[in-house]
């Protein structure tokens, strides 16, 4: 296999480095399946679904979905099942994104429709309703065409709900604000464990129903996804520090500042919240704190990506890490 230096890898290149090119093609098949089912569900309704553009299927737009695909590939799952799980994961993504939109009072698009752009709450509700129905349609079709018992559909639907509820219940616990600033390790073990670590492993809830025999590597790649999720959440906490403190939400960085830094740092944080300063300005005043947080996040990401990728694909580790951090909004 031809070696590629990390700096030479581009996730916007054509062709993509292997095996990402193969997985990206399979992912597109799965995404097309999701969109076709969404279109069939909405046909004849009062809302018009707008056909997605090519960017919708790009690796950059679906990078984490591609990592989930890689976990199936690494565990030896067959191509047709990988495509099924790509479609299923897009359904789960639509539901999770829709819920996050409502909870965070924002709109990150799943489906494009002719609804008014400002109707973001109902657009989120629609994304959830359509994605939930698409999940049933996709699983039903798969079971019928392969003569699998319909009970598999019921089991898979229930398993996905139970998996998502672990993360959802944690989010619900913060809706009214939190009254105490937990210790940093408590944030990781009690909050982010469910909020993002377990959420990244949810992509294995439905495969666990359909895969009769999966190699032992399946557990290892799920742990890898967990660590990737934890690393992403710490980076998210860096970006969302001001908002989370103002909204009284759990935040790892805030807990580190509150419990482990001097009183001066917390006072400066409170002062910054009252001004027009950005988190970037705050971190510029405390570069050692910023480096500690990045290092903690990178420990999780490095462990996760290193255990996810085959040895011969480890050249993807550095560019994948940089891509993830850039997508979240943290400069490494």
Protein model, in words:
It contains 14 helices and no strands. With 332 residues, the protein is mostly helical. It has helices at residues 20-42, 63-74, 79-104, 120-145, 151-173, 184-201, 207-210, 217-239, 241-246, 252-260, 263-274, 279-285, 287-308, 317-328. The longest helix is centred in the N-terminal third of the chain and has 26 residues, at 79-104.
Write the layout of secondary structure elements.
Elements: H1 20-42, H2 63-74, H3 79-104, H4 120-145, H5 151-173, H6 184-201, H7 207-210, H8 217-239, H9 241-246, H10 252-260, H11 263-274, H12 279-285, H13 287-308, H14 317-328
Helix pairs in contact: 1-2, 1-3, 1-4, 2-3, 2-8, 3-4, 4-5, 5-6, 6-8, 6-10, 8-13
